[in-house]
Amino acid sequence: MAVAELFPSHAKIHSPQLSYLSTRLSNHRRISLRPLPRTRISRVVCSVTSSQVQAPTPIQDEDFKKKPECYGVFCLTYDLKAEDETKSWKKFINIAVSGAAGMISNHLLFKLASGEVFGPDQPIALKLLGSERPFQVLEGVAMELEDALYPLLREVSIGIDPYDVFQDAEWAILNGVKPRGPGMERADLLDINGQIFSET
């Protein structure tokens, strides 16, 4: 057992006073300090033998062949089809968006995915059309949509071929236009963009 004595601290204490105080405190104020118990090392024991552990099921290649054009987590997570509907949600619709790597689409796509455009009970599948030059930007937009985890966004696919992107689309939002250059009139701009819209 360890014993500690407490001595009061005074600014000026003479030697006879110090001996008197120490004797008095040693007789009346003693504190018993008990040693701390030793810490025990915890062990984790598994009650399952190694023969009972199941190996992880490998993902079949057939699952990836069903949706070869989908992007990221949307290929693996969502398995609902367009015909399926729940009690609170409608059948999801395919929406094709051209110029998806542009600034306008960067704001519009998140409005679509959050349900502000088609309603809070309408799941959607986005099909994004870009070009070869800003294709990495288009992949970045798809990653942002993937990270946002909107519950109404059931699928995202990206591509540069308008025939593939607009196939089976129920809604088409045409954002990709050519900007007005120097010396161009508005009529020239309408002619060029009209041809772009007619092609898409």
From TrEMBL:
Keywords: Oxidoreductase. Signal peptide: none annotated. Residues 94-199 form the Lactate/malate dehydrogenase N-terminal domain. The keyword Oxidoreductase applies. SUPFAM superfamilies: NAD(P)-binding Rossmann-fold domains (SSF51735). Pfam families: Ldh_1_N. Gene3D superfamilies: NAD(P)-binding Rossmann-like Domain. GO terms for molecular function: malate dehydrogenase activity. One of its GO terms (biological process) is malate metabolic process. Belongs to the LDH/MDH superfamily. MDH type 2 family. This is Malate dehydrogenase. The lineage of its organism: Eukaryota, Viridiplantae, Streptophyta, Embryophyta, Tracheophyta.
